Each structure stands twice: as structure tokens, then as C-alpha cells.
Amino acid sequence: MKKILIFLFLFLLLSGSSYAKQTEIQEREQNKAAYLNLEWWENYKDDILIEHLKNLYANNYDLKNAELKIYETQKLVKLEFANELPQISFDGSISRDFRSSVLKYGSMSIPSFAQNNFQLPLSASYEIDIWGKNRLKTKREEQKLEMVKQLERATYISLTSAFASDYFNLIKTDEFLKIQDEIIKTQEDILSKIKYKHENGLCSVNEVLAEEKYLSLLKEEKSNLENKKEILINALKAYLSENNADIKRPDFSDVYIISNMPEKLNSKVIENRPDYLQSEAGIKMAGFDVRIARKEFLPSFVIFGQIGLNAYSFSDLFKTSTQLANAGIAPIFDIFSGGRKVAFLKLKKYKYDEAVNNYQKTTLEGIKEVNSALSELNSAKKNMKEANNRLLLEDKTFSLLRDKKEIGSASALEVLYGYEAELAAKKENVSNSINYLISTISLYKATGGENLLKTENQNL
What we know:
- The protein has about 450 residues and is of the alpha+beta class.
- It is built from nine helices and seven strands, in the order ααααβββββαααββαα.
- The protein has one domain: Outer membrane efflux proteins (OEP) (Up-down Bundle), CATH 1.20.1600.10.
- The protein is about 65% helix and about 10% strand.
- Strands 1, 2, 5, 6 and 7 form a five-stranded antiparallel beta sheet that branches. Strands 3-4 form a two-stranded antiparallel ribbon.
- A hairpin with a 2-residue loop joins strand 3 and strand 4.
- Helix 4 runs antiparallel to helix 5 and helix 5 runs antiparallel to helix 9.
- The longest helix is centred in the middle third of the chain and has 67 residues.
- It starts with a helix and ends in a 14-residue tail after the last helix.
- The mean pLDDT is about 90.
């Protein structure tokens, strides 16, 4: 019966430990999924982007290191918590003494001898946390853990935002290259007709040279775009931690433009930013440090004891007469420490003031970044609308030129110039549309990963 009870106790202990570990893993996965925030990225209606972000979640080394920092800090919390618990150790020793000369104890003489020493004690000690100092130290480490969690969250927001921005910039560059090829082809047609006019004495050589220079400039611009495309692809591969990753992306025509972003935000939105929550935890941690420093002036009390065996021969080791036991309590108080504790307390007070200042600075920086991102978003939205209007106007102008050519009131050269102007307007439209999308990502990042399209966030 006794063996069964022991077995059940060990089974429940191991099961409880396994369950706690499993719960911790599930909580970590839930936190990481929340940090990735796919609910926000689904607003862009781009399944390819979502798939890339899932790969980023699984493979990125910065995210893996951020998670390891969490595990490291969790162990530091456990290490500090261990100081709140009794400490038990086995300090056994087995030795043999050899005395080669006579020992004198007053009038008594002990001749040379040799003997064994068997000491097998369990030692225990426990610092009575009367003043709550050890509990405060654990709470301080818990705040440090909270800061590291917010750092991990900031890493997720920063990396996903950077990846999405480069992703949309790559889509823009792809479309730019398509338009650039068409512009170059049109300019080559223009140059051909200008050369024909020159050969027939209808224009000067300067006009030919001007068109040739412009064509050269267009080809140089295409080369720069191809280089930028390669750089963006390499950057996205680095984010995914895969050199051979296939950076799939849709055409610009399939890009969804979010239209219902909020135009105003309440300043309270910064309270969700990781740096804001980090600075809050920093103040709490510094406050705990000040309280700990004050309690260093108070005495501490350590309960200690030993129980075990102490014998001079192995045959006597387990006899009742060899049993060893002692216990006591040790008050510890520094009478003079050279001003160390006073200096330590002042140091922690300065650290607390510094943490408060950092909190105030973080609040102001957060408000500034949100306002700047919101202003950039509103400006980008206006520019996108203006670019759309210009493109419509250029479309109409080009259509009119083609109609005029049909009735003989416009030349083929004028139509080519009109088409080139339309392509330039299309390029501006692509640029402003993608810039607007990137500004929505910047606002998302500035608000600390807030899903700004949720109903409750529309009136912030």
C-alpha cells in the first residue's frame, strides 16, 4: 500500500509538471500568434502576403532569438524565486586521518593513530523573508520578463511591417519596370520619327540629340529599377531566412487599396505600443529596486540545521549513536558597511527618476510618431487621389489625340508624346497608391500593432 501511494504521488507530481509545461507552450504560441496579428494583415486581401508572413513567423532568426530571450528571462525569474524557498544540500565527506606524532591536551597525551571519518549530513537553510525583500526581488525579475515580452512583440511588429513595406515596394518596382519598358519603346518610336524629320530638314540636330539623351536617361532609370528589384528580393529572402525562397507576389492590378483608414486618433492609442508598456514595466522594476535597497538596512534571519550520520568506522555508520542533528537561527546585520547601503539606495532612487523620465519621453515620442504617421497617411491619401485624377485627364488627352489623328488634325508624333505622358501619369499613380499602402503600415507600426480597422478603433 505504501509503495502504491508513493507511486501515485510521483505520477501526480510528474503529470502536474508536464501539464504546466504544456500550458506554458500553448500560452507562448498564443502570444506569438497575437504578435503576428494576421487579423490586421488580412485587411490587405493578399493571400500571398499572409503566406509569406507565416513563413517569416516560422523561420526568421530575429524572432527565434527574441523567443530565446523570453525563455532566458523566465529562468532568471525562477532563479530569483528559488531564493524564497528553503535550500537543502548534501555535504557528505569520507576521509582517513593519519597522526604521526603525539598530541598533547594538557596532561593528557594521545599517541600516533589512524582513523576513518564518515560524515553524511543533509544541510538545510532558509532565510525568513520577514520584510518581503526576496519577494520583491522576484517581482522585479517578473517586470524584467514583461519588458522582454514587449521587446519580442516590438520585434514582431517591426519585422512584419518592414517585410510588408518591402513586399509592396517590390510590387511597385515590378509595375514600374513594365511601364518603363513601354516608355522606352515609345521613346524609341519618337526618336525614329525625329530622325526622319531631321533627315528631311524639318527639325534641327538639337532636337535629335535631346531625344537621344532622354532615351539614354530612360534606359539608365530602368537599370536602376532592376537593381532595386534585386535588392528588394534579397531583403525579403533575408527576412524569411531562405536564400532560395520564391518571392511570389501579385500584379499591381490585383493589389487591394484599403479605403477606410481612420483620419484621426486619440492619444490613448500609444498605450498599446511596446515601448510604452516597456517603460511602464521599467518604472515598476525601478520602484522594486528602491524598496529592496531600503530593506537592505534591516537585519535578516536565517534558519539553519543539519541531520545525518557521523561515524569513525563503516560498521558503526548506521547505529543510533552516530546520528547527527543540529539547528539554529542566525541573525545577520551589518553594523558598518562604509556607506555602501546608503550609496546603493541613492543609486536606485536615481535609476527610478531616470525610469520616470524615460516614461515621459516615450509618451511624447509615441504621440509624435503616431501624429507623423497619421499625417503621412492623410497626405498619401490625398496624393493618391490627385494622381488618379491626373491619370484620368491624361487618358482623356491621349484619347482625344488619337481621335484627332483619325481626322488628320494631329500627327503620329503628337500621339506618341501623348502616350508617353499617359505612361508617366500611370507611373505616378502606381507610386502614390503603393506609398499610401506603405503609410497604412507605418501607422500600424506607430500605434504598436493596433488593428485600426476594427469598429472600436474607428472613432479613436
